[in-house]
Amino acid sequence: MSVHKIFETPEDVQQQVYDMVKLIAKGDGALKKGANEVTKAAERGTAQMVVMAENVNPSELLAHIPMICKEKEIPFIYVEDQAYLAEAAGMPIGTRTAAIAVMDVNKDSADRFKEVKGHFETLSA
Q: Is it true that domain 11-123 has CATH number 3.30.1330.30?
């Protein structure tokens, strides 16, 4: 298990997370991409949710983010692959991102966001 990973996210839930990120990336909200941007958004308390990739190397790169999220009461969840996370977030093919922060959710993706947030509450309990 990676250093930054606190709980397991089932594959079906990961797919829902990817779908939510795709919806938001297509203009139904706003995202911040990359560990540095996500850290800043979490520290400021402006992120509504954080999604982290499990296959980050070194995994210590994200070790601080769950602690910040807990302190600021920001839900967070994990997905398996940083390349697929980048693709879902609308980044060019071949790029990777260790994490993304959901900054804004519009009405079309609100239900998907609430569903994923509910999974965080269940998985992290």
A: yes
